[in-house]
Specification:
Helix content is 31%, strand content 30%. By secondary structure, it is an alpha/beta fold. A nine-stranded mixed β-sheet has the order 2-1-3-4-9-8-7-5-6, sandwiched between helices. It is globular and about 45 Å long.
Length: 235
């Protein structure tokens, strides 16, 4: 399977020596489920976009420090691309910012909220889908966000929620999946990221998040869900 990585940012500078970037993060994660998955890098924040929705087998939109509602040319172009992917029913997964971009492009509402969402938080499955194998009612995944999807996109359905984030995951048809959390983060990654970004600005939220580093983590199981979704599996 060849997946286009619609890359919307660089990873935190302090993590680059060990983790390199989003392409390696997602390659390592997906390879834990299915060795041989290939990610083709499209740095959309630099203006590099695919030429057609069917150019590859599927698409993954990464996280970003930017907002899906911001008035930036590349963000407008990305929203247009999401609408093209929707028209073509091209299999697409959005993570964090990518999740929000799917909602924003299709008429949903994304806004910055008062609380910072960081830490390994429980995600509760509200609507089980056929591709959710292995089956779990609750999964633990690391979050890192200030923005949230507040209104679903046209034709969207909420499939999971968490205590701090009512729309933790959404789907549109059988071709769009959005996940607010970051399955590509392991505990070591989250530890460095949280300390680097939030020690000065949000010490209370940081300390709370650090207490979750050893909580049960289901990133590989969620990666399997993502692969099955991109393949169109429903059995």
């Amino acid at each position: 399977m060849r997946i286009g990585l619609l890359r919307c940012d660089e990873i935190y500078e302090g993590l680059r020596p060990r983790y390199e970037g989003y392409q390696k993060l997602f390659t390592d994660l997906f390879s834990a489920v299915e060795p041989g998955v290939e990610f083709v890098d499209y740095p959309v924040m630099e203006g590099t976009f695919p030429s057609a929705p069917d150019e590859l087998d599927g698409w993954l939109i990464t996280g970003s420090a930017r907002g899906a509602y911001e008035d930036e040319p590349w963000i407008h172009d990305l929203l247009d691309l999401v609408r093209d992917l929707d028209s073509a029913r091209a299999p697409t997964v959005g993570v964090c910012f990518g999740h929000q971009v799917i909602a924003e492009a299709l008429g949903g509402r994304v806004e910055r909220v008062g609380s910072l969402g960081i830490g390994n938080r429980a995600i509760h499955v509200d609507q089980r889908e056929g591709w959710m194998t292995p089956g779990h009612d609750t999964v633990g995944i690391f979050y890192c966000h200030h923005d949230q999807v507040l209104d679903l996109p046209r034709g969207g359905r909420r499939i999971a929620s968490s205590a701090h984030c009512p729309v933790a995951a959404l789907a549109v048809g059988d071709h769009f999946l959005g996940i607010q959390a970051h399955p590509e983060f392991d505990a070591a990654y989250a530890d460095v990221l949280y300390r680097g970004r939030y020690s000065a600005s949000s010490p209370g939220a940081l300390n709370d998040a650090l207490e979750t580093l050893d909580a049960p983590l289901h990133r590989v199981e969620v990666a399997e869900w993502m692969i099955r979704f991109l393949r169109g599996d429903s059995a």
